[in-house]
Amino acid sequence: MPPVETAPAATPTLSLVAGAGTRAVRIRRFEARDAVLLVGSSISSLALTWLLYERLTPLSGTFGFWVSWYATFLAMVGVTNVVEYDAVRARDRIATVVLWSVGLGVITPLLLVVGYTIARGIGALRIQFFLEDQRYVGALSRADEGGGRHAIIGTLQQVGLAALISVPLGLLTAVYLSEVRGRLARPLRMVTDAMSAIPSIVAGLFIYALWILTLGNSPSGFAGALALSVLFLPTVTRTSEVVLGLVPGGLREASLALGGTEWRTTTGVVLPTARTGLATAVILGIARVIGETAPLILTIGGAFVVNANPFSGKQDALPYFVYRLVRFPQPAQIQRAWTGALVLLVVVLALFVIARVIGGGGPDHISRFRRARLRRKGLA
Amino acid sequence: MTSTMLGSTAPEAKDPTPVPIAIPTNRDRGDRVYRALATFGGTVTFVLMALIAVFLLTRGWDALRVAGWRFFTEQGWEPGAGRFGIGSMLPYTVVIALVALFIAVPVSIGVALFITECAPRRIRRPLTSLVDVLAAVPSLIYGLWGLFFLQPRLLPLSRWLGDHLGFIPIFGVSGEGPRPLSLFAGSAFVAGIVVSLMVIPICTAVMREVFSQTPAGEKEGALALGGTRWGVIRDVVLPFGRSGIIGGSMLGLGRALGETIAVTLLISVAFDWKWSVIEQGGNSIAAHIALRFSESTEFGISALMGAGLVLFAITLVVNAAASVVVARSRTGAATEI
């Protein structure tokens, strides 16, 4: 088929995507009348539900009340819009209300989880949680006695070792997928996807079978680190590959055209350009594995006192500490578990925020710190 | 095979899409070492996956040979007596995952549509980040929260379902008269709801990605024909993103099947299969491994390895299928208007 001559596409006057050079046209407006309809619907449905629920039918329960209210509210929105406009508009309105409530409602569980963890954990959180272990603590001790220093040390060492193993391997794999693009790239991408989906307990079983049963080692922090690195590797690979893919091809071509070798192109151009993105990938990977419990149940053994050597002897970890204590019947032990959970959650959320801050922009984004350093060198 | 691809910009090219041309390069030794190193890094993933399968199989072989095909039908777990299998565990695992998907899929479609089609530009990025935070919260903390916060508040709903919809097998409850709330604690229903929170971010991410690739021209065409926003969603975005919805749901299914700690904390273990979702008692392969591991004999551990192998195989199949579906989805690049 001969290529059809087409005029250069005119700038769309009605564009949903407000890119550079196109002017976004508002295709709908939220007018005062719509606001009145919404508020009126919500009030009238509240009144109607109350009448039905509390006066006319023998129903009860807060949850049921709000479910009924929401259903009545949607019906009310539909009816008022049919009266004011037409049925097509009414369906659109109902859909919009549903999407808004789902979209904003999805945040509710997050707020509940974080809020409840803070509420339960903050009560017994003392500075000695970071300074003491469970050496002098029994099941009947007060909840704010002792601490989780042994677990925090264990978690830091295990996650650190897992990162030492997985980050170089993951980066190499990402470089292979994105820069070398050898024959194995397609199957490798599939296998990486498959690996990122293996259940965390299976990673623990695997290391138990390989490292402990077959090679005859005993449970230790290092075994836990190995299990974590099985989960860490595909995460780092996938996110790093995406980040490397964002590096503009022109930069690579310029480097090669200037006579740079592939090695120099990757280490001198591609990786530095993607630096913040790669840091984000690593931090997100850490945030994912730091809360993993299942692989550690099988591999680290667990301990109540500090063991700062990850290569010999049983070790504890913060998630394992929480998991074990919460299964005790004593309230003080459960309280300790919540304290540990709060520390864990704060660490995970902090890592997440750090990753967002340093990786907020694309590959050409220059962070504030980097800009300051470049300015010192007189480059920006 | 070379890595250097440049777009052909020859003016006489008929084809408007640039065709990459291969440039022959002479690699020095440094580059050969570099390529070998990267290839080595890549093969580690293959080797690891193979090792996982091999070690689970060899370590589980003792038990699997004793149990034979009955491993898939036997409901109890007494490795010492030679009677053990995943006959109730496997269906319970699937039930928990299905409960999770039953909630997660509609919610994820809604959230993904809201982010791509509906939300004001200002709140899109923050909302996307918040959904990602939902994925970052450790499953241990979801388990704790589900056990102490959600379950007590959910039990009245379970009882209501049992009292009023008990004629449906999945809501059937044993016993008559006023039932105690404790009869509904530790059910697959409660576990599934908590797991759904962990599945929502995964499904949402895939669906959002696919929905956002809907060709703007098709959406604008629908709007120009007088369609409302809901019309555009129903007739353009959803048909376009159907494979994304299926693929995202299957990825979520893979995650839900393997979820361990939250289920371990929530479920009250039962080995006999029943249809009721809301009544106390359930199990999952992953939770069973976590719970039984420390008190198992050598043979018992071999049996657990066998169960782990089955779980590994199932999640692999589900995820491979999901990847194929997502990869096949029609992309906007092929659409010209």
Description:
The complex is a heterodimer of chains A (380) and B (337). Chain A is mainly alpha-helical and 380 residues long. Chain A has 15 helices and no strands. In chain A, helix 2 (62-84) runs antiparallel to helix 3, helix 5 (149-180) crosses helix 13 (318-325) and helix 6 crosses helix 8. Residues 1-18 of chain A have low confidence and may be disordered. Chain B has a single domain (83-331), classed as MetI-like (MetI-like fold), CATH 1.10.3720.10. In chain B, helix 2 runs parallel beside helix 5. A two-stranded antiparallel ribbon of chain B has the order 1-2. Chain B has a two-stranded antiparallel sheet with strand order 3-4. With 337 residues, chain B is an all-alpha fold. Chains A and B meet through helix 3, helix 4, helix 5, helix 6 and helix 7 of A and helix 1, helix 2, helix 3, helix 4 and helix 5 of B.
- Work out the count of structural domains of chain A: 2
Order of helical and strand elements of chain B: EEHEEHHHHHHHHHH
- Which range best describes the helical content of chain B: under 10%, 10-25%, 25-40%, 40-55%, 55-70% or over 70%? 55-70%
CATH superfamily of chain B: MetI-like
Helix content of chain A: 55-70%
Q: Structural class of the secondary elements of chain A?
A: mainly alpha
Radius of gyration of chain B: 25 Å
Briefly note the CATH topology name of chain B.
Answer: MetI-like fold
Q: Total number of helical segments of chain A? A: 15
Strand count of chain A: 0
- CATH architecture assignment of chain B: Orthogonal Bundle
Instruction: Please work out how many helical segments of chain B DSSP would assign.
Output: 11
Total strands of chain B: the figure is 4
Count of domain modules of chain B? 1
Taking all Cα atoms into account, the compactness measure Rg of chain A is 28 Å
Q: What is the CATH superfamily label of the largest domain in chain A?
A: MetI-like
H/E series of chain A: HHHHHHHHHHHHHHH
CATH architecture of the largest domain in chain A: Orthogonal Bundle
What sort of overall outline of chain B do the alpha carbons produce when their principal axes are compared? flat
